[in-house]
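Please fill in the sequence for the structure shown.

STRUCTURE ENCODING:
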């Protein structure tokens, strides 16, 4: 009788484990973006940002990935992936006007996953300012774009 009870409990436990699936909602696929900055001289000031994508995305970073800074939907800076020690960070030269009071957001395109991620508009544009450094890049908080 004891063996039947053990087998029954084991069967219930295994059935329960099999039904515990992670509810993962796949992000939609995006075409490769063509982000570019206005180079007509409209923006006379710059600031820099040295950033990392969130830890769960870092293992998938490729040279073909893209990261850019935005004010609304206007691209203000595109990133270059640079290696600093054992870390690969994105260096962004962000363009702006000295008189504007705007907040920046970032978008990241993962070439490997063909998915898009974004931040909220959180970083104030500051003339000659910096956000992060080669020795201490800032980790972005990003969410997948669902369209």
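FILLED IN BY: designer on duty
SEQUENCE:
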């Amino acid at each position: 009788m004891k063996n039947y009870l053990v087998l029954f409990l084991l069967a219930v436990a295994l059935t329960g484990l099999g039904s515990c699936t992670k509810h993962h909602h796949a992000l939609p696929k995006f075409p490769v973006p063509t982000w570019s900055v206005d180079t007509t001289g409209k923006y006379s000031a710059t600031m820099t940002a040295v950033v990392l994508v969130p830890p769960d995305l870092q293992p998938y970073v490729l040279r073909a990935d893209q990261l850019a800074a935005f004010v609304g939907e206007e691209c203000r800076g595109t990133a270059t992936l640079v290696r600093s020690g054992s870390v690969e960070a994105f260096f962004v030269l962000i363009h702006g006007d000295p008189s504007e009071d705007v907040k920046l957001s970032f978008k990241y395109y993962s070439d490997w996953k063909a998915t898009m991620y974004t931040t909220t508009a959180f970083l104030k544009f500051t003339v000659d300012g910096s956000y992060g450094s080669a020795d201490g890049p800032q980790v972005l908080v990003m969410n997948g774009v669902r369209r």
